[in-house]
Every structure is written in structure tokens, then in C-alpha cells.
Amino acid sequence: MKSHTYDAVIVGGGFFGCSLALFLRSTMSRVVVIEMGDDLLQRASYHNQARVHRGYHYPRSLMTALRSRLNYPRFVEDFADCVYDEFDQYYAVGRKLSKVSAGQYRNFMNRIGAPMREAPAEVRDLFESKLIEAVFAVTECAFDPVRLKQCLRARLEEAGVEVRLCTQARRVMPDAGGTLTLECESSDGEALEPVRGSWIFNCTYSQLNGLLENSGLAPIPIKQELTEMALVEMPAGLRNIGLTVMCGPFFSTMPFPPLGCHTLSHVRYTPHAHWRERPGARFDPYEYLAAHARKTHFPMMIQDARRYVPMLAECRQKGSLWEIKTLLPQSELDDGRPILFQRTAEHPNLICVMGGKIDNIYDLPHELKKTGIEVHDPKR
Ligand SMILES: Cc1cc2nc3c(=O)[nH]c(=O)nc-3n(C[C@H](O)[C@H](O)[C@H](O)COP(=O)(O)OP(=O)(O)OC[C@H]3O[C@@H](n4cnc5c(N)ncnc54)[C@H](O)[C@@H]3O)c2cc1C
What we know:
The protein has two domains: 1-85 and 142-221 and 330-380, FAD/NAD(P)-binding domain (3-Layer(bba) Sandwich); 87-138 and 223-327, D-Amino Acid Oxidase, subunit A, domain 2 (D-Amino Acid Oxidase, Chain A, domain 2). The chain has ten helices and 19 strands. The chain has helices spanning 15-25, 62-78, 102-111, 121-124, 145-159, 208-214, 285-291, 298-308, 331-334, 364-370, and strands at 4-11, 31-34, 83-84, 88-94, 117-118, 132-138, 142-143, 162-164, 167-174, 180-186, 191-202, 223-233, 241-246, 251-256, 261-266, 271-276, 316-327, 339-343, 350-355. Helix 1 runs parallel beside helix 5 (145-159).
């Protein structure tokens, strides 16, 4: 079978793969994105809470909080048409079970230079004061993943990045010329023309280890969670509000712009299952999710959340977003969300990339530079 040769082959057409392709195209001639789905940004880049993190969520990881502070304004500027900010955002601190006190949270926000103010009385009154110590008003927006997809699709086309949909990457192999060959197949399992690249980037998020395992390479230690976020219609009094209770077994609600409703996520009930991927004991997370019975945890989420915000009892479930969430082991210690950017020992030109949150794309140029790849910011 004949194969095409590219400077960079990116496996995975999520937000990370597409963003990386644009960075690489600024200095490379031939860049291709290989995506198994029939469109871009259909997996974790769609099924998430749509929060553009500005640092407030990470009082236990100063590094993640500071990186978010730097990345937030860049995201908001670069993706201005994809940002949704027609709501007020509040972070509350629980009195019991919280890993931070209100005083510690205030100090943390001062330390990272994050603007905040005490929430007005009518917002504080939404909360049960026996359970909530303080409520802070902040400015933090959401993103619309459908607009993000449209925007990236247009930018990839304009930049001349090739996109191959319905193409599943199966295996990476070294070839004689010092490049790497990627074996691919169609959605029906038919072998497709292989793709050759000087660099291959594995941006498959929860499928990172699938490609590595098929290629006979050592897996990356990751934790997988099968997650459910309820999609809810808020009562009028909460419609233009985002609420997050910090920092422990609590909940958050955020507008979900493409569907005109909110997501409700709960630290205890959003994960339905979790597991660590180990060598030889891996199963396909997409297949696992597809086979999952999807019995909603919404009743438990709302039963707990309404104790903190009684008005939430009036919200109505419209459905749920289900997805596999992939976490690095260190996230369990401090809830941080660093980017993973790792060359494989066996083939240094095969690089695994996984961003714990969307604004981490701005860490890519720095990581690329460490491997000797210079890129320009295509938007600057
Ligand atoms: C429940 C949940 C809530 C979250 N909330 C937020 C939030 O509020 N804010 C935030 O910033 N981040 C949040 N995140 C994290 C965020 O969603 C991810 O960091 C981001 O979407 C990862 O993008 P990605 O491109 O790496 O992954 P994905 O969007 O999953 O893209 C991976 C792509 O690879 C493709 N693929 C997989 N295997 C192959 C293969 N073999 N061949 C070809 N293609 C393949 C898939 O089809 C997919 O399109 C959340 C995540 C979850 C799950």
C-alpha cells in the first residue's frame, strides 16, 4: 500500500489535536489530523463542563491556578466568538468536609492575584448558611464547544491542515527512513492507506494507551473515570448564574451554551466508575462507556446539592452528558491539571499529549520547544 509522508501527523481531532495542528502548521508544511469520528471535537472536547478556568478551581494546586491565570485571557481573546459570559459566576466555600476554609480560599485568591469580591446579599441568601461559610463573586466565562469546533474547522482549512475523518489510527511503527508509519483503518475496520510522519502526536485523551498498546509500547499510568454530568433546566432565580462549592465532595453548575441549559456536576456522583490502566489489563474506554447502562445519578446529585442551595430542588433534568475523563495520578493528590507532553522511550518522535483542561493548549509551544520544535502562535 502506498503511503503519504507528512511533517507531523496528529492522531485525535479533539480540541488538543486541532490546536496542536495549528501551532505546528505555523512552521511545518505538511500537517494532517487523523480522527476516528465523523467530525471534530465530539468526545471530551464536547462532553465537559465548558468552564474556561481562571484559577479559582484549584486552591490546592498553585501551579495549575497560576497557569490558568495566564492562559485565561489568551483563550478569551483567541476564541472571543466561542466564549459565553452572560452569567454571574460564584464560588462558595463549604463549612463541613471542605478541604479549604473561607480564609484560606481568600488568601489563595490574593496570592494568585485573582480578582474576587464578597457575593451580594441576595446571592448569599440562595445558600444554606449553616453549610456554606462564604460566597465569592468572580468573573469567569464558559465556552461553547460547538462554536469552538466550527472555529477550529475553519482555521484548519484556512491554514491548509489536512483532516481525515472516520479514520482510526491502529499502530505506530518505525520505518527505514527514520520516520514513523501510522497504520489506519476505516470505521468498518477496513485497512486504509498508512500515513507516514516525521513526528506523530498521540492526542487521543482517554485512548492514549490504546495506540501505545497496539504499537507494543509501554502505557502511561492514567486514571479513567466514567462520568455523568446532568443537563438541567434551572429555575428562573438561578438561570443566569454559575455556582461552584469548594473544595471537597460538593457540586457545581455551569451554563452549557450549545444546549441553552446548565450542567450539574457532583464530585461524589458524577463518576460512575473509575479504574487505573495497567499494562496487559487494559480495556477500551469508549467500548466500556458504550456498554454502560447509563442509569442517571441525577436524583442523588440533586438531593445533596439542594441542601446547600434549596432553590435547586426546582431544577429539571433534560438529559446527561456521558464521557470518560482521563486524569494523571498526581491530580489525585492536589487536583492539579498539568499538561502531559511525553516522548515515548522507544520512538522519541512519537509524542503523547494530554491536556487536563482546555486552556492548557497554551503550554504547547513551550513543550514543543523542549523537543526542538519551534512554532509561532498562529493568532499573533
Ligand atoms: C466530565 C468532564 C468535565 C470537564 N470539564 C472541563 C471544564 O469545565 N473545563 C476544561 O477546561 N476542561 C474540562 N474537562 C477536560 C477537557 O474536556 C479535556 O481536557 C479536553 O477536552 C481534552 O481534549 P482532547 O482533544 O485531548 O480530547 P478529546 O476531545 O477526547 O479528543 C480526542 C480525540 O481523539 C479521537 N481518537 C481517539 N482514538 C483515536 C484513534 N485511535 N484514531 C483516531 N482518532 C482517535 C477521538 O475520537 C477524539 O475526537 C472536562 C472533562 C470531562 C470528561
